[in-house]
């Protein structure tokens, strides 16, 4: 993003130590809000003064990583879950605080009240690969997002993406034809598991 580019320019790179030493003025001049400056400074400070705080995440349970990260001001459950998904590649994360995912899943599966409870029931068929299902749902609602490492293998047919884009323009339900796509993707991952 442009803020990150500006930040890197203003502090000559992007490391915890550089953020820690930068000072609030440089961080604010990079386009960060007062609140983001505070949170980023707290995080950088923790990296610099107590790096052991972040060691061992790969060997911790999802719940323990979330708990540890949420102890830091500015990091909530959603942020911790994104860390688990994108940095630790954990396969079984379902971010119920992600409004885009929740609303899309509810719409795709035509989930009725109580919606969250029924979404949890639907997610049972995803087994311990909820992250994969979430990635698929994000991909279906926004086909232009970053290609995840497994997408190139699982969604090989470019026609699917074109049809999804067309359906989105027509405001037709996306999932009628692709209802099994998530489960097929999960089956693919089960058959050829990556190194989590």
The profile of the biggest β sheet is: none
Q: How much of the residues is beta strand, in percent?
A: under 5%
Which word captures the global form? elongated
Class per helix and strand makeup: mainly alpha
Describe this structure in words.
It is a single chain. By secondary structure, the chain is mainly α. It is built from 13 helices and no strands. The protein has helices at 2-11, 16-22, 24-29, 34-49, 62-70, 77-86, 99-108, 115-123, 130-141, 151-154, 158-170, 175-178, 181-191. Helix 5 (62-70) crosses helix 6 and helix 9 crosses helix 13. The two termini are 28 Å apart. The model is unreliable at 147-157 and 171-179 (pLDDT under 50).
Using brief descriptors, characterize the structure shown:
0% strand, mainly alpha, 196 residues, elongated, single chain, 62% helix
Short description:
By secondary structure, the protein is an all-alpha fold. The protein has helices at 2-11, 16-22, 24-29, 34-49, 62-70, 77-86, 99-108, 115-123, 130-141, 151-154, 158-170, 175-178, 181-191.
Would you spell out the secondary-structure blueprint of this structure?
Elements: H1 2-11, H2 16-22, H3 24-29, H4 34-49, H5 62-70, H6 77-86, H7 99-108, H8 115-123, H9 130-141, H10 151-154, H11 158-170, H12 175-178, H13 181-191
Helix pairs in contact: 2-4, 5-6, 7-9, 9-13
């Amino acid at each position: 993003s442009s803020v990150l580019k500006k930040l890197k320019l203003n502090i000559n790179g992007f490391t915890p130590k550089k953020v820690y030493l930068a000072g609030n003025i440089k961080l604010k001049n990079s386009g960060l809000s007062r609140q983001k400056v505070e949170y980023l400074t707290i995080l950088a400070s923790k990296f610099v003064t107590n790096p052991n705080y972040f060691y061992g995440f790969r060997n911790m349970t999802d719940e323990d990583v979330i708990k540890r990260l949420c102890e830091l001001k500015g990091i909530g459950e959603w942020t911790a879950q994104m860390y688990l998904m994108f940095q630790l590649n954990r396969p079984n994360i379902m971010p119920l605080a992600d409004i885009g995912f929740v609303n899309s899943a509810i719409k795709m599966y035509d989930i009725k009240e109580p919606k969250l409870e029924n979404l949890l029931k639907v997610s049972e068929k995803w087994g311990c690969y909820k992250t994969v299902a979430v990635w698929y749902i994000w991909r279906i609602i926004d086909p232009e997002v970053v290609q995840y490492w497994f997408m190139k293998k699982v969604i090989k047919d470019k026609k699917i993406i074109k049809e999804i884009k067309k359906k989105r323009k027509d405001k037709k339900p996306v999932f009628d034809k692709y209802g099994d796509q998530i489960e097929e993707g999960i089956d693919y991952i089960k058959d050829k598991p990556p190194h989590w």
